[in-house]
Every structure is written in structure tokens, then in C-alpha cells.
Write a structure and sequence with these properties.
The chain is built from six helices and four strands, in the order ααβαβαββαα. The protein has 192 residues and is mostly helical. The chain has a two-stranded antiparallel ribbon with strand order 1-2. It has a two-stranded antiparallel sheet with strand order 3-4. The longest helix is centred in the last third of the chain and has 35 residues. The radius of gyration is 39 Å and the shape is elongated.
Length: 192
């Protein structure tokens, strides 16, 4: 029992090397596709790999198309739960693929006979909508500034202010005096 353990040389396992290489390659592919360990998603988007590039907002009103879409809460029905027994049974939120397909068919695909939405690319539509809102906001601010300048240059006459150089109360008092004088005059001519 007093024997010291001898340092053992690691046993060579040649069968592990190909498995390790395959695992490393697989992990590298997964990391490349997912964007790293954080779980993000990356997609090749280099302009040098694209042709016929057009702005999404060009020729279409992104805000109007978004207004036609419904953001909904829902629960998966029995049909879906039979197809996907591991599905989350809690309340979900999302879009209706049929509605989205009318405006952005590029974001809808068929999967097992059902429509599926590519939510990651939908963010591009939202970006363009935000840009349109920013532009509309700039135009609205410019219109408000122009209207403010017009008002300051030509202020409207507030009610109760001078009319023919008189205060409104003075004007009303003078009219009452004139009316009373006429009435007295008419009464005095009748009584004679």
C-alpha cells in the first residue's frame, strides 16, 4: 500500500481523432451559421454578392402594408400539437402568414404543407417603416414651424380687443347708450 502510483502515459485512442475532427467541423459550421456562442443569427449580406438591388421603400408604402398586417396572440391548435408534440403550449405571438404573403411573399415559405414566416428578415421591413416615420416626422415638424412663423408674422386679433380703437366693453357701452338715447327720443316724440 505504500507504493506510489506511477505516472501513466495517456492511452492513445486513434479512433477519437476522426470523431474530434468531425465534431470540430460540425461545431465550426454551427458557430458560423449561428453567429457564435451567443446564439445570434448571421446571414451573408455582402453587396458584392447581390444584383438588381432596390430599396424596399422604393415604389411601395411600407407603412401602409404594415397597417394591413395583424400582430396576434394565439395558442397552437390540436392539429399543430399532434405534428409537434414538443411544442410550447403557452400563448404565442406572431403574424398570420397568409396576410404577410400578400405584401411580402419573400418572407413566407411552405414547410410540410403549411406556411411559415421568416421573422428574422421581417426586421428589414420594420427598419424601412421606421425610416418612413422619421421622414414623415421631419415633414410634419417643418409644416408646424412654417405655420408658427405665419402666425407670429400675422397674429390674429383676439376677441375682446380693440374694435375701431375702442375696448370691446367700451364699444358695447357706447352701443347701449346710443340705443337708450334712440328709445328716449322715440318716447319723447310719442308723448308730445
Amino acid at each position: 500500500m505504500g507504493e506510489e502510483k506511477k505516472d501513466k502515459k495517456p492511452r492513445k485512442r486513434p479512433y477519437l481523432k476522426p470523431m474530434l475532427v468531425a465534431y470540430t467541423a460540425l461545431l465550426g459550421t454551427v458557430l458560423e451559421k449561428s453567429g457564435g456562442l451567443a446564439g445570434g443569427t448571421t446571414t451573408t449580406s455582402d453587396v458584392s454578392l447581390k444584383k438588381d438591388v432596390q430599396n424596399l421603400g422604393q415604389g411601395t408604402r411600407v407603412l401602409a402594408s404594415l397597417g394591413a398586417l395583424r400582430g396576434v396572440y394565439y395558442f397552437w391548435n390540436e392539429k399543430y400539437l399532434k405534428l409537434n408534440p414538443q411544442a410550447d403550449k403557452r400563448r404565442q405571438l406572431g403574424l398570420i402568414a397568409q396576410d404577410l404573403e400578400k405584401h411580402y411573399p419573400e418572407l413566407v415559405s411552405r414547410k410540410d404543407g403549411f406556411l411559415a414566416v421568416d421573422y428574422s428578415r421581417f426586421s428589414v421591413v420594420l427598419l424601412e417603416a421606421i425610416k418612413q416615420l422619421i421622414e414623415e416626422n421631419k415633414m410634419t415638424r417643418a409644416r408646424v414651424s412654417a405655420l408658427e412663423a405665419m402666425i407670429l408674422a400675422n397674429p390674429p386679433q383676439p376677441r375682446g380687443r380693440p374694435v375701431d380703437g375702442l375696448d370691446l366693453a367700451e364699444n358695447v357701452a357706447q352701443k347701449r347708450k346710443a340705443k337708450a338715447t334712440r328709445i328716449r327720443g322715440n318716447l319723447s316724440s310719442v308723448s308730445r
